[in-house]
Amino acid sequence: MDTLILSVSAGGGHMKAGEAIKECIEHKYPGARTMIVDTLRYVNPIIDKFIVGGLYLNTVKNAPILWGILYELAESGDNVTDFSKAVNKLLSVKIKNLINDFKPSVIVCTHPFPLQMLSNLKKKGKVNIPTVAILTDFATHPFWLHEHIDAYVVAHDYMKYEAVNRNLSEDIIHPFGIPISKSFLQKKDRAAILRELKLEDKLTVLMMGGSLGFGEVRDTFQSLLNSKKDLQIIAITGKNTKLKRQLEKYTEASKKKVVILSYTNRVADLMDISDLLITKPGGMTIAEALVKELPIIIISPIPGQEERNAHFLTNIGAAARILDTDNVDAVLNQIIDNPLRIKHMKEMCRFLAKPNSSENTMELLEQLVRENERINEKYS
Asked: Between 211 and 121, whose confidence is greater?
């Protein structure tokens, strides 16, 4: 089963979902060809730099309210969505050439931009390969919903209802969850990891600011250092080297045990030894934490998709939210000192978790490939 996975490196979650599918396929089919393509960078590096490096990242970092407004405008089907479709229609020509060269059995899209391209190509009859969309957040959005897409993989059953209300056929919506790496399905020895990191067996808080280290991480980190709770901290700063240096400086005057890491491939291990996760609510990070049954405290969601993730998770009881970093201790008290609350949060994580997301998605891909082969044989 040769699989072409089209994504965009806006944040880390879209690419990681693709990597989880690739990992699962290659485990079952060692000889299969599986390729992940950073779509905009492949089509045109200049456009990628403008849209991802400039428009998206700069707006999210420096003017998040503006990003939220654009997100809401796209929700209503106004000019933002139409503009996106028009741009991706123009860019789809090069993707068609890639498809012709690679000749995949199935195509997976983990970002709406390549999905729009495939919808356009399939509508014109230029591509007849099964195409699957994997939504990487906990709410639907019109950017993702297009004609001629064969299947949609969503994070939970509630999203299926949302998608049906947006006129998507129920038959093609599969609430398998966001695909995650198999490393999150393994439980590591807590004592061994604590020793390795020179940490103690006590309340451990894991802080993550997303792959780019955006958000109110600094203020929250300082509040944890000043907390009256007997706790230790693990902070992951992603690609933000400036943030890492700042946190290291704050730590110099603290007696608390602290581990500060940049980008790391050991998130699963760190979740295994943690009692709480404080994070921006990116879809992939949340999916991983749910599988680990790790109670979540949300900070500084990006307006738009992450704000909706936060709304869903707090409403259903899997997460709490810090609105004011001065009140970190108050939120910690409400969770740590309340056995019913911490138990309920873990139970809701377990309820929402989709540990078999990657395997179930791969089985869907296999089914679509078989169906497509039967159709081709019938009409050949």
From this structure: 121
Q: From residue 12, how far is each of 198, 361, 363 by CA, in Å?
A: 28, 20, 24
Cα 349 from Cα 291, distance rounded (Å): 7
- Phi then psi for residue 376, to 5 deg, are -65, -40
What phi and psi values does residue 231 have, to the nearest 5 degrees?
-135, 165
Measure CA 170 to chain center.
Answer: 23
Look up residue 347 and give its amino acid: E
**Which of 114-118, 276-280, 324-328 comes out lowest in average pLDDT?**
324-328
From residue 234, alpha-carbon distances to 14, 74, 206, 227, 237 in Å are 24, 37, 5, 15, 10
Identity of the residue numbered 147: E
User: Tens digit of pLDDT for each residue in 300-354?
Assistant: 888 888 999 999 999 999 999 988 666 788 889 889 999 999 999 999 999 999 9
pLDDT at 379 over 80: no
Residues with Cβ within 8 Å of 346's Cβ and at least 6 positions away in sequence, in order, are: 293, 295
Distance CA 93, CA 178 (A): 29
